[in-house]
Structure formats: C-alpha cells, structure tokens
Amino acid sequence: HVQLVESGGGSVQAGGSLRLSCAASLYPSCMGWFRQAPGKEREGVAAIDVRDTTSYADSVKGRFTISRDNAKNTLYLQMNSQEPEDSAMYYCAASIYASAVVPRTGRCSAATDYWGQGTQVTVS
Question: Is the separation of the CB atoms in 64 and 83 below 8 Å?
C-alpha cells in the first residue's frame, strides 16, 4: 500500500507560481498529478516514470514542470505562468504497474492505483 500526502496548494494571482509536493511512503514506477475542476472530469496534468521520462497535457506544457527527489520519495509539480483555468483540486497519483508515461497526456501507461487526498489551487 502506498500513502500519498500532498502539500503546497493555495491561492495565486494569474501569472504567478506555486509548487506542489507529494510525499510517498513508497516510490512506485510511475507517478503523476491530476486535477479536477467543479463540473469537469479529472484530467491528467503531468507524469514521470522511473527513467525520469515526463509527459504533460498540452494545456500545461511549457508552464508546469514535474520532478522527483528519489532520496526523499517526494514528487513535485512546479506551476508557473498560472492561468485562472488552472484552478482545480490537484491530486497526486501513483501507478505500480505502469512502465512508462504516455506522451502528451500527462498520464502513466497504466491505471492509477493510489491517490492522495488532494490540494486546492485557485488562480484569480
């Protein structure tokens, strides 16, 4: 069982930056960030696999950066040049069966097995 604990959400003005963190009890082969805005489906934002290959949704590419610190079992999402459309609940996700990321989707190649509790990001 993998426990995921997010932190770093909050409110920011358009054009600003936030960094999300996700502390994992174990480090699975692929991890990522999803987001869900009210009335919308949950969507993949960014993912990173064990080889440090990354994938981003087109809506965030060039603005967001996913990274991880293996020594700390921590996943990060640096969000720059934020837009009001980025406002959503952000969830850390772990896939223990995924061997890679899927290009341009912000997702791992297998379904998510574990979710964090979510952290709210509001851009105004």
Answer: no
Give the E-state strand segments of the chain in sequence order: 4-7, 10-12, 18-24, 30-36, 43-49, 54-56, 64-69, 74-79, 88-95, 101-102, 107-108, 114-115, 119-123
How many residues are present in the chain?
Answer: 124
CA distance 69 to 14: 28
Q: Are strands 101-102 and 107-108 parallel, antiparallel or unpaired?
A: antiparallel
* 13-41 per-position pLDDT tens digit: 999 999 999 999 987 889 999 999 999 99
pLDDT band at 12 (very low <50, low <70, confident <90, very high): very high
Does residue 33 contact residue 79 with C-beta atoms inside 8 Å?
no
| CA dist 14 → 8, 72, 108, 123, 124 (Å) | 17, 31, 29, 6, 6
- DSSP 8-state symbol, 96: S
